[in-house]
Design brief:
single chain; 1100 residues; mainly beta; Lipocalin; twelve-stranded antiparallel barrel; seven-stranded parallel sheet; 11 helices
């Protein structure tokens, strides 16, 4: 219609006469979001002259000043229009005069413009300015706003899409009135005086406005200049050529309107009657200058819960020629009834030209709306994202009745701006929601899902609507069918829902029957309800919030419980006169402050978490399932009455230091079970827990039918004592799992001392709550014992034996004089013993230096020797330890015919030594970890004698028996480990004596080489036998609890072994001899016992 208007008017417009004002006024410029000046607002007070001079004989002067609240509200309304309207090129701001009046009303209108060359057509000045075909007159206003003595709200300006205060919505009233000045205004009049209530004789003026040109009568016919109007109470006689509204079915239409309505209705309804279908209330003498969509702000209905225009009404403004990017404010609207639609229309930011969406980018328009469902009995699947972050943005608004909204899993509905609403259900009854996707309203004052009819934009004292509720002038009225029932029948939620102010809010006028929270749901924000109304039976109309019903394949709740349901909700649930929570299945954790009508835990379901429940005195908190405070340890407080049925169970966790607790501040009617689940901790033998530590009530009736407990422990026992529980352990609690007598000794002493010794709590706890088969305890007892030190002692004795063997394997001097020698040696072995001993591996490396002298003519040589060595001991599993030993030794020795090839020979040696030792143990079992360590200085003493006899074998060989006896003494002082107090040991001093005899056979053979060199070889075999006890005793105690002491009996030496050795050396010259040797021991406890050395002898 824009083209038609411009064609009719051209560029020659004449304004109706206005008289300019020479008085002062205040001026504000209203800007759009692009920073352009849309309106010049001139504010007139009582001393500023006439703000409306259309009647020059009686100009209108403001009787009172508009206060700051009014200015803010009016400015906000104009800013909304500035955002909606596209301004033409070369536009200068339209002038709007603002004044006051004493009437109980508000209005806005503009000067009418006409063109003599195109009769029968008029246009408001404001429309002409926005068409860009009229530049305006700075001395005259393009529109006038008058504000009267209405009961207007004084609340702060906000962008809500619902009226909120109960008073006339100031912002909405001005927004409505300026729409008239923008062109929603008819050119119809009658011949009656202004204040007459007689039946009128309406007719169209000869000059028709764009709005009038879009009107149609009951027959779908357009009006004509001067045409009479027929209606059921009008006085005009019947004329077939008249504009026929006798059925009051008139409407406005245009191309844009038809696009939006999509066949749902012939056009936007208008009414000639004050009350549609009720002629007795007379004619509305504004004559079809209002739209009559249900509850519309632009209607003349007495109840309106819109504060802005619907999409169809915005389309009507397009049809009367205004330039508006409608898709910036509306994604899609459904006005039809019985529609099934997979809506693929999204809502996003617009491109710079306002011609297309930018998918994925948030729309920033004020009061944008992604999807509006106006009609009834529709099933709409929202299959595209709706993304708004503008002030007052709403994802989906649903009015009408009996609509079903489906939100698939992949769909996002975000309203992230100030006062954003993800879902807003604002009228009707029996709506259903199935939400599997994501709904968010995380901006300031955002609500994820709002169920609220809102207040009446014209003042709720006049008329107020809600579920089963219509109040007019303070009196209840008959409820129309559209309000006979709950606003929401079922809200099935298995997706994500969040809101900064609330995830879900139910207003005091909206009844919601069922909110079903299903598997997969994630809720951030409170759930609140102000609803507090009773049915005809005087029972409260309740909202049932269920957790854990089973969903069908379409995401709808079934009546069955879902045993796999799992959810944690950390918000508050508040609605003491409305909200009844049911834990229907699975496990639900509620954590917050909850004010409820009642709560019920069904059989098979579990409720846990940290919460305070305040229960309406009309009902109670009922447990027929499992009630468990905390998410680990925690508390529940129930302010109200509590009932536990025969199938109910309270499950509390407890330890020696913490426990769950339920406190009923009211009457507790008890039955069922109170069950304690004892948690890992250190329990002294005989520890007790009283019932009143875990459950208390102001008053009780009955008692728990059973007091039970669980304790997942291989060592502890728990039993009921009548008013609580006690824990004990048997004497063999630990020893029964020991793999050896040594380990059993540790276990027995631990059990005997378990009534005290807090310092060992970590060890007790780890063993008491290890695997129930006791395998961890067997491991623990070995690692806690002193077995690693026994292995170290055995390794030290074997090391000293190895040092003694080095000297025995050194040949004596065959000439008088001095001989020095140096030899490097090394050895390793792996000791594998029975189950009462400690398997370990040892590696030793060292060097021996010595010198000896043989007097001329003597068979004896005397000498001194010293050695240095390092030994590394690895103790095998389960003990897991490492030791490093550094030793020094100094000794003297004597040889008798050590060089002899035939006859007797002998050796005697004596040596003392010092050892620097370190031990690092690794204790790891059942979650307990420790690294005890120690260091010490030990001492050694060795004494040995050897004799043999050689028979010659030819000129260069010999064979003969060898006898030896070796004594060793080893001392390690008492020590105390460092490390965790629960496992570090204090060990008594260790003094070990060993005496070993050996008998064997030695074979030697020499080969003379050139240049006086000689190659010497030997082969030996000997049987070694321990003559003293092969075992050692090690006494130890826990350093922090020395009363828990134990001793162990471990092997220290091989009882016997078969030793094999061989050597080869080269007499390089008369003074120098080089050689190497190797030996091993068989048939003993050692495995892979191999030794070797490289030596050098020098005579001088």
């Amino acid at each position: 219609m824009d083209f038609k208007i411009k064609a009719l008017l051209g560029h020659t417009l004449l304004a109706l006469s206005w008289a300019g004002s020479a008085y002062a006024y205040e001026t504000e410029f209203i800007l759009n979001k692009q920073g352009q000046q849309a309106f010049e607002l001139r504010i007139y007070g009582p001393d500023d002259g006439g703000y409306d001079t259309s009647d020059q004989s009686n100009p209108r002067v403001s009787p009172w000043n508009i206060d700051e609240n009014g200015r803010l509200k009016i400015r906000a309304a104009l800013e909304r229009w500035a955002e909606i309207l596209n301004l033409p090129a070369g536009y200068t701001p339209a002038v709007i005069n603002l004044g006051t009046m004493n009437d109980k009303n508000a209005n806005a209108y503009g000067a009418q413009l006409s063109n003599p060359d195109h009769p029968n057509f008029v246009l408001s000045a404001l429309q002409a300015r926005l068409h860009g075909i009229f530049q305006g007159d700075p001395n005259n206003p393009d529109a006038v706003i008058s504000v009267g003595k209405l009961d207007l709200d004084t609340a702060p300006v906000n962008p809500s899409q619902l009226p909120l205060t109960g008073k006339a919505d100031y912002n909405a009233v001005i927004f409505h009135e300026l729409a008239h000045a923008l062109g929603i205004s008819n050119t119809v009049t009658d011949n009656l005086p202004e204040n007459s209530f007689d039946p009128p004789d309406p007719f169209f003026l000869n000059d028709l406005s764009p709005w009038a040109l879009g009107l149609r009568d009951d027959q779908g016919r357009a009006p004509s200049p001067g045409q009479k109007i027929l209606c059921s109470v009008c006085t005009n006689p019947y004329d077939p050529a008249a504009f026929d509204l006798r059925e009051d079915k008139g409407y406005f239409t245009g191309d844009h309107v038809q696009e939006v309505l999509n066949g749902a209705m012939p056009g936007i309804p208008v009414s000639i009657l004050n009350v549609h279908d009720q002629p007795r209330y007379g004619v509305d003498r504004n004559y079809m200058s209002h739209t009559e969509l249900r509850n519309s702000l632009m209607s003349h209905q007495t109840y309106r819960n819109y504060v802005n225009l619907m999409e169809a009404e915005l389309a009507a403004l397009q049809d009367i020629g205004l330039s508006i990017d409608r898709r910036n404010f509306f994604g899609y609207s459904v006005y039809g009834d019985g529609v099934t639609l997979n809506n693929t229309n999204g809502y996003f930011a617009r491109n710079a030209n306002g011609t297309a969406y930018l998918p994925g980018q948030y729309n920033m328009a004020t009061q944008g709306l992604g999807l509006h469902i106006y009609g009834e009995r529709n099933t709409i699947t929202q299959a595209a994202d709706l993304l708004t972050a503008g002030p007052g943005g709403v994802g989906v608004r649903v009015d009408g009745s009996e609509n079903t909204l489906l939100i698939p899993e992949a769909t996002r509905i975000h309203a992230q701006g100030w006062y954003g609403r993800g879902l807003q259900f604002s009228y009707g009854r029996h709506h259903n929601i199935v939400q599997q996707g994501e709904v968010r309203a995380d901006g300031q004052d955002g609500i994820g899902a709002l169920f609220d009819f809102g207040q009446n934009a014209m003042g709720s004292d006049d008329e107020y609507h809600g579920s089963w509720l219509v109040v007019v002038d303070g009196r209840l009225q008959a409820v129309p069918t559209i309000l006979q029932g709950a606003l929401i029948s079922n809200y099935d939620l298995s997706g994500t829902l969040s809101g900064q102010k609330a995830a879900i809010h139910i207003a005091d006028n909206a009844w919601v029957q069922n909110i079903n929270i299903l598997q997969g749901a994630q809720i951030t924000g409170d759930i609140t309800s102000d609803y507090n109304r009773r049915g005809s039976d005087q029972q409260l109309l309740l909202t049932r919030i269920s957790f854990g019903q089973k969903a069908d394949e379409n995401g709808r709740a079934t009546k069955a419980a879902d045993p796999n349901f799992q959810m944690r909700y950390d918000g508050n649930i508040k609605g003491q006169n409305n909200l009844a929570v049911v834990i229907a299945g699975g496990s639900t954790s509620l954590n917050g402050q909850h004010e409820l009508y009642g709560l019920r835990v069904d059989q098979g379901a579990t409720l846990y978490g940290n919460s305070e429940f305040t229960i309406n005195p009309e009902y109670n908190f009922t447990n027929n399932g499992t009630l468990s405070p905390g998410n680990s340890y925690g508390n529940m407080t129930i302010k109200g009455n509590f009932v536990q049925g025969a199938d109910g169970r309270i499950l509390v966790e407890a330890s020696t230091t913490q426990n769950d607790h339920i406190d009923v501040l009211g009457l507790a009617q008890l039955d069922g079970e109170l069950h304690v689940d004892l948690q890992p901790d250190w329990y002294q033998n005989g520890w007790t827990l009283n019932q009143d530590k875990v459950f208390t009530a102001s008053q009780t009736q009955g008692q728990f039918a059973a007091l039970n407990a669980t304790l997942a422990s291989p060592t502890l026992n728990v039993k009921s004592t009548g008013n609580g529980w006690s824990v004990s352990r048997n004497q063999d609690a630990y020893a029964q799992y020991a793999a050896s007598p040594n380990a059993a000794s540790v276990g027995t002493n631990l059990a005997q001392a378990s009534s005290g010794n807090q310092s060992l709590a970590a060890v007790y706890q780890a063993m008491d709550f290890s695997r129930t088969d006791g395998s961890d305890i067997g491991l623990a007892l070995d690692q806690l014992s002193a077995g690693s030190y026994a292995a170290q002692t055995a390794a030290a004795l074997r090391r000293e034996q190895l040092v003694s063997e080095q000297l025995r394997q050194t040949d004596g001097i065959n000439k008088s004089g001095w001989q020095s020698f140096i030899q490097t040696y090394g050895g390793r072995y792996h000791w594998q013993l029975g189950n009462n001993d400690v398997d370990h591996r040892s590696e030793t490396y060292g060097v021996m230096l010595g010198a000896e002298h043989r007097a001329e003519g003597s068979d004896w040589s005397l000498g001194v020797h010293g050695n240095a060595n390092e030994q590394r001991v690895n103790v095998d599993a389960p003990f897991q330890a490492k030791s490093k030993l550094t030793g020094l030794g100094l000794g003297v020795h004597a040889r008798y015919r050590g060089y002899s090839q035939e006859g007797w020979n002998g050796l005697a040696q004596l040596r003392v030594g010092i050892e620097q030792g370190k031990m690092n143990r690794n204790i790891s079992f059942a979650g307990y970890q420790a690294r005890p360590s120690s260091d010490w200085t030990g001492h050694t003493f060795s004494l040995g004698v050897q004799t043999g006899y050689n028979w010659a074998l030819g000129e260069n060989g010999s064979i003969g028996p060898v006898l030896a006896l070796d004594y060793l003494h080893y001392r390690r002082p008492g020590l105390e480990e460092s490390g965790d107090a629960a496992s570090r040991l204090r060990l008594d001093a260790s003094r070990q004596n060993a005496l070993q005899a050996s008998i064997g056979l030695a074979l030697r053979q020499n080969w003379n080489l050139s240049q006086d060199r000689q190659l010497q070889t030997s082969l030996s075999i000997a049987w070694e036998q321990a003559l003293l006890s092969r075992n050692q005793n090690q006494e130890a105690a826990f350093a922090s609890a020395q009363s828990v002491s134990f001793d162990g009996r471990y092997a220290r030496v091989d009882s016997h072994a078969l030793a094999l050795g061989t050597s080869i050396s080269l007499q390089q010259s008369e003074r120098l001899r080089l050689g190497l040797s190797a030996s091993t021991r068989l048939l003993g406890d050692s495995r892979a016992d191999i030794n070797g050395k490289l030596f050098l002898n020098w005579m001088f």
